[in-house]
Design brief:
The protein contains six helices and eleven strands. It is an alpha/beta fold.
Length: 215
């Protein structure tokens, strides 16, 4: 994939490294040419100096052929403008904007803009770590849905996946068993030693913990 990253701060540089190591073609845009010193010099990332929502700058970065754009500058306004231009003007298929103010995330979500709010995610993650539970978050999808994993509670041994399904709130998406991971059906029976992977509505976490006897 051809991906443009607007902003070469710590997150932008780390994202560029991760995507490059995955084999993607990465171009990084920043107003400060010295910011590119954060990039891993062993990687082949293109760099473009300029404002991330300037049409000419984005064109120079190759946005007309881009498969994705991530706007991760320190400015919410810059990120949103760059992301909306990418999605609405250049029709980039995958666009994500980082927002520092979580109150703005819902507004832009209604406009069809995918956002990541590190503050909101961080608050939930820190709370989880301080109040340890066996629901181990693997990834958060926005601010509403988490993918979590846990060792099968003993009381679920022999029960089926449908017994651990709450429509709209909780769904078993995969089971790891005997060194292999597979997609179960509603009739799949749990076995002792299973590691189960769940899609969980964040607001239902307490209900699920109670249901599973996790306190």
């Amino acid at each position: 994939m051809r991906i443009i990253i607007v902003g070469c701060g710590r997150m932008g540089a780390a994202l560029a490294k991760t995507l490059s190591l995955q084999g993607h073609e990465v171009t990084v845009v920043d107003t400060d040419p010295t910011a590119f010193e954060r990039l891993d010099q062993t990687l082949r990332c293109r760099t473009v100096v300029g404002v991330g929502f300037d049409r000419d700058v984005l064109t120079k970065a190759g946005i007309q052929r881009a498969d994705g754009l991530a706007a991760v500058t320190p400015s919410d306004e810059t990120n949103v403008v760059a992301a909306r231009m990418a999605s609405q003007v250049f029709r980039v298929p995958r666009v994500v904007a980082r927002l520092y103010d979580p109150r703005k995330a819902e507004i832009y979500h209604r406009l069809g803009l995918q956002t990541i709010a590190p503050v909101t995610w961080g608050v939930h993650r820190i709370a989880d770590l301080l109040c340890y539970s066996q629901l181990d978050p693997v990834v958060s999808l926005g601010t509403d849905v988490d993918i979590v994993q846990l060792d099968l509670p003993p009381q679920l041994t022999g029960r089926s996946v449908k017994d651990l399904t709450i429509p709209g709130e909780l769904q078993v998406v995969a089971i790891s068993r005997g060194g292999k991971t597979f997609l179960p059906s509603l009739g799949t029976a749990f076995q002792s030693g299973d590691l189960i992977h769940l899609a969980l509505l964040a607001s239902s976490a307490d209900r699920v913990r109670t249901m599973l006897g996790l306190g």
